[in-house]
Amino acid sequence: MELNKNEYYLKLNVAIESLVDKWYAWSHVISPATAAMNIKDRHLKIMESYIKNPNVHAAAVENPKMLGGPFIDYKGKRVDEIKFLYEETLAKRADLLELREAIIELNGILKREAKGYSLNELYAKVPHVLKGFVELYYDLNNNANFRFFEYLLYKSKYYDETAQSISLQLVEADDSRSFVLSTPRLNDDNLIHLDIPFRSSVIDELFKMKETPNDYDTIKNLLGISTEQEGLFQQFFTKEAPPKFKKYDGTGVRTRYFGHACVLVETNEISILVDPVISYDGYEKEVNRYTISDLPEQIDYVLITHNHQDHILLETLLQLRHRIKHIIVPSNGKGNLQDPSIKMMFNAIGFNNVIQLDEMENIEMEGCAITGLPFLGEHSDIDIRSKLCYHIALHNDLKILFTADSCNIESKIYQRVHDVIGDVDVLFLGMECEGAPLSWLYGPLMPEKLDRDKDLSRRLAGCDSDQGLSLVDIFNPRNVFVYAMGLEPWLVFISSIKYTDESRPIIESNILVNECIKRGIDAERLFGEKTIEYSGKVEYAF
Description:
Elements: E1 7-10, E2 14-20, E3 23-24, H1 32-52, H2 54-61, H3 79-92, H4 94-113, E4 134-138, E5 144-148, H5 150-154, E6 164-170, E7 192-194, H6 201-208, E8 214-215, H7 216-223, H8 227-234, E9 237-238, E10 253-259, E11 262-266, E12 271-274, E13 299-303, H9 314-320, E14 324-330, H10 342-348, E15 354-357, E16 362-365, E17 368-373, E18 389-394, E19 399-402, H11 411-421, E20 426-430, H12 438-442, H13 452-457, H14 465-475, E21 479-483, H15 492-495, H16 504-518, E22 522-525, E23 530-534, E24 538-541
Parallel strand pairs: 12-13, 13-14, 14-15, 19-20, 20-21, 21-22
Antiparallel strand pairs: 1-8, 1-9, 2-3, 2-6, 4-5, 6-7, 10-11, 10-23, 11-12, 16-17, 17-18, 18-19, 23-24
């Protein structure tokens, strides 16, 4: 197709990072209550440490054993800029910091004064900041707690879109970005920062250009690109058309692995994308992978398994928002601090097509049924409900089970699930069985620091070989694919994982794969890309 003079495509290696106060955005820094806790006990804490001891951070970043730790990756430099961001955060986020202090205060009040008697009189002692936002309650063991009316928080000053911005850049290598939970995104000659809220439709207009050309001046003006930014902005565009997606037109099912926990399931009627994490294209790569050009123009259903930053990757989801027809998410615990609503978060940032599912609830459509199944563990024994495995039953009787990072700590639960849904044909099984301790992700939400030995015992871990083989015994799959390991090099900036042959998840997954093969079950640990086509029996195409 011949383009008009000023029409261009967006290059396939243009990346977007959604930012909150210049920190990489994930769900817990968007939802107001968890944002308050993370700003104080993650962002400010890390910046304060860097300002005091930048060289300690520089040394830690170079130590592979410290990968994923709370260390800023600016080689001990740019201290004045971090100090400015620290002070700016204190000033601009005073309301959220006040909310955080009120949460801690209310927790202390309940711990000291709620002794099993009526909580009615304690409403008078709720900090004024929280009045009208919380309900007090006891669990059945007479432990007092409170829950938020989360929607009201989103409609208050505690949800402030002025904290949101995006940055645009060209990705030139798989491991070129710093770990997202530890390093804020300061100004850089290779970045364009734009004060645009995540819900803005201009983001959709920009990323449509990865498939459909548009007028350069139009998109430049929509984004508000300055004269100083335009030199770099021009480098984001090309006259070269991207590869054309070939829609699956067979009579069976095509399943494509995109890396980590991201899998595309297609028939000639429907497309389903699980936990979207899509690599970029347009630069030299050592590992083959599918990219955005390998996705259909319309994605009928996106399935989100749980509320962790490597499974709700906003930079992928924002790029795909204009293609997504529906998003299915787990329902949550209705107001508990540690379990914010995924649906409300998506609604707030411009996704208006979100469907909540509970455990064992399903959605049926022509040619397909999607059922949410119990997801155990991997959340450090905290009461978090926003997590689901997914069972997909397709028109030709193919049944696929995605377990993500679920840890089979009580196999009797899955035996009872099997009594309802029966055997499956294909099992996708997460085996990141080492996992970070509770404090790595949930530490900022804890009112009191957990003892180190307890913290280390409560891990964000998936199945080991015994737990995984138990699932194989229960569901009798013909194919087992180990995935969601964070193996791919383009995921390090999200997961902070780099394995060796001696890493426990590698050893455990090797044991499981070898045992499955010994039993006559097709099995492998996925890496990079893979296509599986099903047409009555499972056949492979690479």
